[in-house]
Amino acid sequence: MDHDALRHWSKIAADWAHDYHTGLRDRPVRAPLTPGAIAAQLPETPPENPEPPEAIFADFARIIPPGLTHWQHPRFFAYFPANASPASMLAEQLANAIAAQGMLWQTSPAVTEVEQVMIRWLTRALGLPDRFTGTIHDSATTATLSAILTMREQALGWQGLQQGLSAQPRLRLYASAETHSSVDKATRIAGIGQENLVKIPTDATLSMKPGALAGAIAADRAAGHLPAGVILCAGGTSVGAFDRIADCITVAKAAGLPVHVDAAWAGSAMICPEFRRLWEGIEGADSIVFNPHKWLGAQFDCAVQFLADPGPQIRTLGLRPTYLETAGREEITNFNEWTVPLGRRFRALKLWFTLRAYGLSGLRDRIRNHVSWARQARDALARLPGVTITTEPSLSLFTFALATDRETETLLSRINDDGRIYLTQTRHAGRFVIRVQVGQFDCTAEDVDMIPKVVADLM
Ligand code: PLP
């Protein structure tokens, strides 16, 4: 395939994409689950000779869509959204066409400079102080890993990077049980060890208890351990829990510890000033991650990390071998020094397109609708005999259950086999419960009304 053929097939692909998106409501949201069904349709070995684009495209159209769970389906209410606004898809097409690798400023100044400006725009959009700077990662997991590696090295006076951890004191991190498993994963990968991630008990509001945090830090110091940092939860994945950020940061700062806040999902909602009370005190954080690829519409992958001071992270992650040396170090930013991978995609382009195409007002309208439609769905479900609302809406996420775990599990299977909507589960307060999150970019009030209808039909 050459560039002329690419032009031809790109137009066909654009038409296909249009029909795919406009026809999503006619498809079951979740892929029918028959393991091996897709792989069985692919040859065991790669082709020896070139194949015509017609054949490749025809196989794509025949084999792939039936094996997809449609994340852009307007009735996708599972997990959290991975929204791809049309403007973001257009930007991704252009980024793919350019195929730049932005590891250094000089490897494409536009990649670095648009990223810097987008971080500034988002700082302002979320109401954060202007002194925050930041970078874009592939995922929240990588951002959290970067923050935890930085906490580790700050605590060790940057000795771990050279000497490893074997001769170091026992490092300790603190988070609540409501934080995402990416915190556990990052703690493991950073060599700190799962058992040194201290899970602080939560109170009735599902916030970490600040007093218990203070107690755990003091006890660890008394035992000769080395507290390294606190990870706070602003919108947990299970039921949308929020730590009381201001109170917890006060405790962390009194103990001299840095704070990373995981707002991967809920961060997008902070473009609406009325929701910012949920993370009151956020300006005291050292690091914050939020995923525009979840609720804002800048498609996967796009995870923004705000940093109060990038210095410690650059000191932890930056390496400058001769082959990466560049002139003008003082005036330029080489973002590879802020992140784990060296190579970097042009992720800022889709933020630029999305923020411009919808404006903050358009994006706020969507998020406000989602929050209010989720409340309506909660009320309609609560009216169904036998349904219990197990957690109240946190922004646009709530959970419900039937009388027993078994009944709830059966209902969930029926819902997802039915295909009109897609919901997933969590465990809360010892119960198997069904999560409902409303956040799909193209969903309407009618799509959300389908949730209680489907539940009523299938109970
Ligand atoms: N934090 C929270 C609260 C999440 O909900 C998720 C994913 O859903 C993550 C972190 C991990 O996100 P990522 O897939 O970008 O690593």
Automatic annotation (TrEMBL):
InterPro entries: Aromatic_deC (IPR010977), PyrdxlP-dep_de-COase (IPR002129), PyrdxlP-dep_Trfase (IPR015424), PyrdxlP-dep_Trfase_major (IPR015421), PyrdxlP-dep_Trfase_small (IPR015422)
Needed co-factor(s): pyridoxal 5'-phosphate
Keywords linked to the UniProt accession: Decarboxylase, Lyase, Pyridoxal phosphate
The family this protein is said to belong to: Belongs to the group II decarboxylase family.
Protein name: Pyridoxal-dependent decarboxylase
Gene source species: Fuscovulum ytuae
Phylogenetic classification of the source organism: Bacteria, Pseudomonadati, Pseudomonadota, Alphaproteobacteria, Rhodobacterales
